[in-house]
Amino acid sequence: MYQNLEELADSVWLTSTAYSDYSETYIYGTNGYCTDVYSSGACVTFRGGAYDKTVSSTHESIVNRQDSDGFEADWIEDTLSFGRNTSLSSFGFGVPQQDLSQAFTSQSQLGLGTKAYSMFWGLVGGPAEKQTRGSLILGGLDKSLIEDQNDNFTASLFRSSRCGTGMVVTISDILLNWPSGKNESIFMGRPEPATIQACISPSFAGLMSLPLSYYESFWWYAGGTPPDNKSEARSSGINYFTMLFDRDDAYYGGMTIQLQNSISVKIPNTELVVPDTYIAADGSVQTNTSVSNVVINSLRNENDDDNDNDYDLPVLGRLFMSSAYLLVNQEAGRFSVWKVNSRSKTSDIVAVDKQNDMVSEFCASSTGGSSSATSSPASSVIPAPQDKGSKLSGGAIGGIVVGAVGGIVILCTTSFLLYRRRGSGVAATGIVQEPELQTKDVKPPTYSMVPAGPQELAGD
């Protein structure tokens, strides 16, 4: 049994997925509500950890709390640790009493449905020396991760039953980028208008899902043979339900996703075709090197009916954020997408306000003064509270992280945690009249100042 969270942090992490559909954070308990496919050990890994309030000395139950996201949860406050140096006391979250999202979004979920946040997933494919760490910032963004600040897609949030995040985009073309320099469109030969509406969902497994006919077009041009003479093979691992191919006969090029009247996001082959990783019975994450995983999920035939309002909307998932940088501003009712600068070495973190502008003063005055957007912003660091030694069970969790935490910063103007990932009430929402989003009247974030560098707590 672990004696405190700092000791636990050296061994086991809770991993949490950023989730825009929910406004609350949810951490699975000792009953992870996994299917019979998973052993008890595999279920703990599948859920990112297992919270056991019975062995925590710092937990308090939240009584008379109403469930806000449409399902039952046991509401708790507890001290959560981010590595050795930072922790949050009295952090409220729900312990789900059911499976929330099946295997497409399997882990504990950091609810971001009422917040401003930005995300870069990090490069996760290719050799280890080419991989990069990701970033999740609440209340602002890291300008160093943006390739060109003036080259972005910005639109209003449009929430519907088919896109809970509200981030609906129109894909005007998908190009296969061959190493020879040749580009081929999988939209080629399709009747006009050849476009796809898709929902950006940072928690969704894989790169994207495609309607069946578009996936078949991709496969026709890209080639590849499913393993074991199968007509189709899918992963049941980390990139759930994406496509599997023989290791020696899989697509070897990249892909460019063109957003209508806006930017083109290029996905390198190392992020498109990866080893198939899965969770073993003992809970360890292992790799099947005999197959290649093309991280695209082909939707079923019945989901490819544009005349049916209940059809599944294609999704741009978390691996899309390996090549794109995403900002969501719930209060402004807008979101923005840039091509990412994955070569960034030094953070340049700034906050955004309700008007989707940078703010120069992170903390309003005690007399009720508002933030200003005319001078360089400064950042404040909140000292970590004392850890009171809560203990968590085997496969237990030590704090909400996305990968392994290295530092933490607070922007108090928005009262949001500004959180840097070193390892891997409803807010006002702008509603457009039609799903076909219009972007000409939507204001992207303003970048008119040079911010001061943020302070970060030391981390491993």
Q: Secondary-structure map with pairings?
A:
Blueprint: H1 5-9, E1 14-19, H2 40-47, E2 60-61, E3 73-82, E4 86-96, E5 108-111, E6 116-120, E7 135-138, E8 140-142, E9 152-156, E10 168-177, E11 183-185, E12 196-200, E13 208-210, H3 212-222, E14 243-246, E15 254-259, E16 264-267, H4 269-272, E17 273-279, E18 285-294, E19 296-298, E20 315-316, E21 324-329, E22 334-339, E23 349-352, E24 358-359, E25 400-401, E26 405-411, E27 416-421
Would you tell me the structural class of the helices and strands? mainly beta
Low-pLDDT stretches are 1-13, 302-309, 365-441, 447-460
Major β-sheet, in short? 6 strands, mixed
In CATH, the architecture of the domain at 154-321 is: Beta Barrel
Shape category: globular
What is the arithmetic mean of pLDDT?
76
Helix content: under 10%
What name goes with the CATH superfamily of the domain at 154-321? Acid Proteases
* Overall CATH class of the domain at 154-321: Mainly Beta
Distance between the termini: 23 Å
- Give the DSSP E fraction (strand runs of 2 or more residues): 25-35%
Which fold does the CATH topology of the domain at 154-321 refer to? Cathepsin D, subunit A, domain 1
Report the radius of gyration as a whole number of Å: 22 Å
Number of helices: 4
Number of strands: 27
Quick rundown:
The chain is mostly beta strands and 460 residues long. The chain is built from four helices and 27 strands. The strands form eight sheets. Strands 10, 11, 12, 15, 16 and 20 form a six-stranded mixed β-sheet that branches. The protein has a five-stranded antiparallel β-sheet with strand order 7-6-21-22-9, with no helix packed on it.
